[in-house]
Amino acid sequence: xxxAIYCRLSEEDRDKQNETDDSxxxxxxxxxxxxxxxxxxxxxxxxYSDDDYAGADRRRPEFNRLLKDAEEKKFDIVLCKTxxxxxxxxxxxxxxxxxxxxxxxxxxxxxxxxADTANKGNxxxxxxNGLVNEWYLEDMSENIKSVLTSRRQNGYHIGAxxxxxxKKDPDQKGHLIIDDExxxxxxxxxxxxxxxxxxxxxxxxxxxxxxPNPTEYKRLHGLRYKQPMRKNSTLWKxxxxxxxxxxxxxxxxxxxxxxxxxxxxxxxNKPRPKSEWYIVEGTHEPIIDRELWYRVQTMIAERAKPCxxxxxxxxxxxxxxxxxxxxxxxxxxxxxxxxQCSNRHIAKDACIGSFISxxxxxxxxxxxxxxxxxxxxxxxxxxxxIEFCDNLExxxxxxxxxxxxxxxxxxxxxxxxxxxxxxxxKGIISENDxxxxxxxxxxxxxxxxxxxxxxxxxxxxxxxxxxxxDDRREIAERYTNLEHLNREIVETLIDYITxxxxxxxxxxxxxxxxxxx
Length: 517
Known about the structure:
By secondary structure, the chain is α/β, with parallel strands linked by helices. The chain is built from 14 helices and 17 strands. The protein has helices at 24-40, 61-71, 83-86, 90-104, 123-153, 180-194, 199-208, 214-220, 238-245, 290-307, 358-377, 379-425, 431-478, 487-493, and strands spanning 2-9, 43-51, 77-80, 107-110, 115-116, 166-168, 176-178, 254-256, 259-261, 269-271, 278-280, 319-321, 328-333, 336-341, 355-357, 494-499, 511-515. Helix 6 crosses helix 10, helix 11 packs across helix 13 and helix 12 (379-425) packs antiparallel against helix 13. The longest helix has 48 residues, at 431-478.
């Protein structure tokens, strides 16, 4: 019998020399489980170990590798210290330990709480363990929330990363101290803005001098940081300057709780309204003095007022640079409005810089829209479209009929597996006989389920094609012979637009429109 050992530790390790090392607890788990395997005479297949992962985290890399190998029947037994080491979720206990593992011919054993799927008599105890672990997760989540809320209300820093300009105090948990090198850059940003420099200009000045942005600075100094998701991540951007200039942490106030978790079962967060933030004044040494802070806040407010008209720009958040993928920003020269890449001015090599006037882009969109309208209002084309839709309708009916047949057969195979399982429970057939006999049923059912999934996908695509045949004519009729666009039309018709750099020697700007229809 081949055994796969699974170990997990969720608490933050304090006995590691390096992040890649195993903690002492993981080493103890491995030693205990290896000793047990030897006593049982089992052959070790592999050790799967997740360090610093919670029992409710389904993204555990080794846990998922274990499940994949189990499905491929690379071993016979999964061995853990306790059932909660495998999972704390009752749903996963039922899905894998009581559901898929028996079908795959996998035995589950945990030695401390005596869970063993070869022992039919302790199934209820395994389910109770799962339920208790689920309650534990929920209670632990509420307890952690209350502790974190209390620490936030008392002004302790509880984040994983210190804000750029600060670092965590090694002598006092939850306290921030100034990082002198980064703090000098923060002071320079506030001073330059107070002297009249714009946010993009400040970003360009920092990039030209080779000053790394906050993420790159932390990486270079071996500090914890959040992995960037975009290109040119080492450069300062407009939004980094903008966020810095309004962050109260730089005047000594602790601001936390801007985001809150959706559920204890997921790590997803959602923004919270400012009224629910935790703001505590005077928790740490300020980098920016109050006089400079208030001067900058006044300038930000004054600069915002003349630009605000109460209207959203015609192409706001709809136009992207074809070179770097960033959303293009609106600018104004006299009475004429332009769209330009937000990376265009931050550094020499950040982007070659896409640029187009709003009236020119509007004309391109209208011309293309009128061309499409003419094409789809053409009578012969319309008749061919109707005929095409009729053929699609025939295909749709055939697919629905096939799906009904597949689903009926799936029900039959599922019923067969259930009957075999009851025979196994009653002792009519053995565990091995059940695994062997249900194997072909399960395989055929999986094939039919894939056929249903594929047919439903085809059905969905046909429905879209049929709908497009109707929608395109309706849209074309509504938006024929336009002279100007408005925001409603842009929102309705356009998913996004990419704009490239002007073709040298011409006035042509390559534009690609991605429609919503």
